[in-house]
């Protein structure tokens, strides 16, 4: 079966995250630098293999001091773990345009299984004749599973940050070549 290689288009993609702050509101941020590939041979992508790599130093919460703290040993420890990675194991069609994307995510050198919910946006040719495929991906990780935590607590002893990190990615891949 012919398999196509698809390259993630950074200029038409984004990776976002949200976490509860003081249990009253969300703090949002982005990772601005990342890359990825997808290999697929089937029209419905059910044989797709995804690999995404995120540059931890590219964290952007619109607050320079907070971003530097997130890169520190309290959170991502970017000096020792400069990248996060996701490698898929399966891409299962649920119904309509909905899929489950299951694989392993590695953050701070710790690898855990995860299943993301995916809405497949479809395929289209751009103005230059390149075939593109779009995916809307959502999921959650518990920050404690990856040793991402600060010891900060409120005056009442509650956590400053929630434990669940919500992730959302809108990604486009551009078809590069066909492989056997």
Automatic annotation (TrEMBL):
Entries under SUPFAM superfamilies matching the protein: YceI-like
UniProt xrefs under Pfam families: YceI
Domain of life: Bacteria
Chain ranges of the Lipid/polyisoprenoid-binding YceI-like domain: 5-174
UniProt cross-references to PANTHER family, sorted A to Z: PROTEIN YCEI
Protein name per its UniProtKB record: YceI family protein
Source organism per UniProt: Flavobacterium alkalisoli
